[in-house]
Amino acid sequence: MPNVGAKMSSFRAQVSTLKFLFLAVAAIQLVTAASGTIVALYFAGTGASQEIAALAPAAYSLGFLIGCFFIAGWITSIGHIRAFSAAAAICTASALLFSVTDNEPTLLFVRFLTGIATAGLFAIGDAWISETVDGSSRGRLLAVFAIILGLMSVLSQVIVIITPDDLNQSFVLVSLLYCLAIVVIAATPSTPPEGKERANVRVKALFADAPTAAFGAIAVGIVSTVFMNVVPYRAAVIGVDAVDVAIAMGAIYVGRILFLYPLGLMSDRMDRRRVILVASVIASFALLTFALLSTGDGVRHAVIVGTPVYRLVFVGLILLGGSMLTLYSLLLAHAMDRTVPVYVASSAVTMLFVFTIGGIIGPLLTSAVSAVFGDMAMGWMLMIVMAAFAVLTAVRIKTVAPAAKAEQTNFKAAETTSLKSAPTQKR
Fold first, then answer.
1. Which CATH superfamily includes the segment(s) 2-425?
2. Which residue ranges traverse the bilayer (predicted)?
């Protein structure tokens, strides 16, 4: 019992030390999740084409990729606090630019810069937590961190709900939250850690060791990026109210919170690929329903508003979020199941790299498909990508034996902003 008390005391002390960092990163997650919806609605309001609306998340994902894997060394050269403040200042300026111009090339470049800066912000927060806490508390602290980020994703849509008629106000509010993050991190009394060397990206090895995880990361990157960043544009164009769009996006994030840990714990007790298959099949059916409802003229939406069917749509969105947005964590755990312990950290880095590549491919593919087949083709494209991955998973289950119990990792919630994964997850 004394040891338990000492551990709890240590845990509380470390939470107290990191509370300012948690607050700053919570503000960043709040505006990052909100921005996907706000930017999509902004392009719909300015009359931009779906091709342009799709290029915005592609630019953001490209910037995020560069920020994560090519510029993150900047942190160790100028320090965590300076780097965080500079990156948040770039995001502040980027948000304000949306409120003063509607020049599409400029705004696409702004999203690219935002992606670079946001990657730095999350990398700093992630590294600060991982390198500050001791091994006995790291798992619980990262779980608390994941819960905070999940709640902020849900609450992010409140920004849209309180400013539905003037998106310029939304961008101003976003910039104020970035400023809050700068003030909090600059005033923190704790000392940031020294930067540490990061693991290497091993794409070829990931596809060889865990092809289900590798192809799944690409598929989830394609589908989730497009759905969370382009579908709000499509909904606004066909006449869905901005508040309804925000509530729908919030429902998807709620689904992730509700299903992440139950599915994760279930996957620890069986062949993890079976849980991945179930989640991908549910996501495929949800996307099929979305494709069928997207008539392109808003007629079906207008008919079902205020009816029980409309409420069922939101239940479907919760199921979509509970399947689509939990897949990355399940896939990451599966990748680690198939990875020798010395390369576990590299697997986490490589999975994020592959996921981000999917985040670039998805919007570009959407732009091309929309130009050739029309805007309604987007929904069918998303369904086909997810269904194809479900088929691949089923084939792998039939033809390849599951990982041995001794080689299985313990499931941990993983964010698609995190470069860190504790090697202690491997048994």
1. MFS general substrate transporter like domains (1.20.1250.20)
2. 20-43, 55-76, 83-101, 107-129, 141-163, 169-189, 210-233, 245-263, 275-293, 313-333, 340-365, 377-395
